[in-house]
Amino acid sequence: MSETTTRVEKRLRSEHREVLDGLVACADAVVAEWASENGDWDEGDDESNEGDDESNEGDDESNEGDDESAAAWTTDRDSVVPALEHALDASGLLLHLPNVLADLVSVTGHPMPAPPVAAPPYVVVTSEGVLLRASLDGARLVVSLRVFAVEPDAETRYVRRDGVAVGVELR
Could you list the residue range(s) of the whole structural domain that residue 17 is in? Predict the structure, then answer.
């Protein structure tokens, strides 16, 4: 990670913690929708998940570096992207994300060519979460806020992650 991307990630985590927390709440609301619709989701094996909430935090070596939760998943992409976008919109986060992006760009020392809006190419809701993107002089800042993981197998599964996986890149 470059010095710039490290500064951007630190700024996100320190100054925009409420956004990360709000994204977690929105993802949890999406998962709750899966349950209420009796859709294609799974709670996993009840016995193997007992006590997982707190006692096994960070102890599972087989999932080292993998913050995906086995608690909830779906195979229906349409139960992820539109539902997450709706939850973000209803919470007010969707309209706030361009401000977050503008603040993160300010950390890079580069100006934004235009004010960002809550729509592509600046803010994109994906099957994994949210992408914040900005073109800079000769580079592109991409901040990924992933609350779901995509597990391609015989049938693609969308799995709820534990928390938010943050990624910052300069491309």
Answer: 3-37+71-170
